[in-house]
Specification:
This protein is of the alpha/beta class and about 300 residues long. It has helices at about 5-65, 65-70, 95-115, 130-140, 160-175, 210-220, 230-304; strands at about 80-85, 125-130, 145-150, 180-190, 190-200. A 5-stranded mixed beta sheet has the order 3-2-1-4-5, sandwiched between helices. Strand 2, helix 4 (about 130-140) and strand 3 form a beta-alpha-beta unit. It is elongated. Produces ATP from ADP in the presence of a proton gradient across the membrane. The gamma chain is believed to be important in regulating ATPase activity and the flow of protons through the CF(0) complex. Keywords: ATP synthesis, Cell membrane, CF(1), Hydrogen ion transport, Ion transport, Membrane, Transport. It is found in: Cell membrane; Membrane. Belongs to the ATPase gamma chain family. It holds the Pfam family ATP-synt.
């Protein structure tokens, strides 16, 4: 059994660890609130641009049957190479979040490859890693790294998303990849972050929901586009891709901070439980030592 000195040293060490994890929990909590606010502020804009792209796609398609052939970002072609933009945390101490995202990306690639292999194709897979955890996962498993973006910080900007989207768009336009998927962790709430997969390229205009269509029929609002729907649609498509990547990065940052806060809270609780157990063990050892000393004194007195 360890001595009281060793137990005291271990209690002191665990207390210091608990202080560190508590401080990290408070920092992550503060950052999570700010990240959550940015996500909530960006979602209405993303929803509006999705609605605008959907409306423009419908109006432009009615005006021109060759719209898909004219716009390179809309072209569907046989899939020979798959591109995956993997957005993962830059740092650890996030619990199982990085592993869940990486597994989801690998599962997406495997499912798509299996689906295409049933059609007689054998596609290659290339990754654009955003974040160190995803990059390390791709390199460790030798999955084919096309580009990497790290150190995007706690406040990613639209310029960061534009740079990432430009790499994916260039690869798609050059024919290096025929379809691009976006994999990230969607922020649901503090304890729930769901890995999701979204097709980034070729662009698929959002489908209108029945409820939205009914509301629009009631409103019966008509829009006038200048110069025309096709021109605006062509100019808006690259921006739409940038917004998809930017929204995914904001969701990923909020998910990372919430996962880190929960992980640090669990670590702090475990450290406090360990301190209680060690304190109980320390008291038992000290009581046993005192009892032994009393017995020795009594035995010595009886011997005299």
């Amino acid at each position: 059994m360890p001595s009281t000195r060793e137990i005291r040293q271990r209690i002191r060490s665990v207390k210091n660890t608990a202080k560190i994890t508590k401080a990290m929990q408070m920092v992550a909590s503060s950052k999570m609130r700010r990240a959550q606010e940015r996500v909530e502020q960006a979602r209405p804009f993303a929803d509006q641009i999705r609605e605008l792209v959907s409306r423009l796609a419908t109006a432009a398609s009615n005006g021109s049957d060759d719209l898909v052939e004219d716009l390179a970002l809309l072209k569907q072609r046989p899939v020979r190479n798959i591109g995956i933009v993997l957005i993962s945390p830059d740092r650890g101490l996030c619990g199982a979040l990085p592993s869940n995202i990486n597994r989801h990306a690998a599962l997406t690639a495997r499912n798509e490859s299996q689906r295409l292999s049933e059609q007689g194709r054998s596609p290659g897979v290339e990754y654009i890693a955003v974040g160190r955890k995803g990059r390390d996962f791709v390199i460790r498993n030798d999955l084919g790294l096309a580009a990497e973006f790290t150190n995007y910080g706690d406040r990613p900007g639209l310029s960061d998303a534009t740079a990432i989207a430009k790499v994916a768009v260039d690869a798609f336009l050059k024919g290096e990849v025929d379809v691009v998927y976006l994999v990230y962790a969607k922020f649901v709430n503090t304890v729930t972050q769901t890995p999701v997969t979204v097709q980034l390229l070729p662009v698929q205009p959002p489908e209108k929901k029945e409820e939205d269509e009914q509301e629009k029929k009631k409103q019966a609002t008509e829009y006038i586009y200048e110069p025309n729907e096709q021109t605006i649609f062509k100019a808006l498509l690259p921006r739409y891709v940038d917004i998809l990547v930017y929204q995914a990065m904001l969701e990923a940052v909020a998910s990372q901070q919430s996962a880190q806060m929960v992980a640090m809270k669990n670590a702090t609780d475990n450290a406090n439980e360990l301190i209680q157990d060690l304190t109980l063990t320390y008291n038992k050892v000290r009581q046993a030592a005192i009892t032994t000393q009393i017995l020795e004194v009594v035995a010595g007195a009886e011997a005299l």
